[in-house]
Amino acid sequence: MSKVTPFLMFNDQLEVAMEFYAATFPDSEIRNVARTGSDGPITSAEFVVGGQVFMGYNGGPYFTFSEGFSLFVDCEDQAEVDRYWDKLITAGAQPMQCGWIRDPFGLTWQIVPRRFMQLIGDEDSKKVEAVMKAMMTMVKLDIAALERAFNEA
Prior knowledge:
35% helix, elongated, 153 residues, 4-stranded mixed β-sheet, 2 domains
């Protein structure tokens, strides 16, 4: 385990959330779980999502996630953006603006194509501004539209 590990407090959905994340993202697994009794519900666990280690706990309704914390998913291309977006939507996630989506457990994800990060890193501020303006009109990020905005600026 790293020195610092994100710790996520779920209401009572830790087990189903971990199973969904492990099935959705490569390099994911459920590691150590603690149960109430020998066959009771999971109370806490260590799990990995996309190579990132997390600790999780079923803490009850006192704790909720906010958009102040989100998980950034670096996507190689539009197909990868679409794949994660579709899996999240199928699971009941709610799309937000600018490539953000809230999963059915309340956690917010940013599904971002790597090309977007390259475009906004350009030295031409007019091109960067055009890409940012285009991104602000999107729900799921569209690489072709972002590149069109960049090229037309």
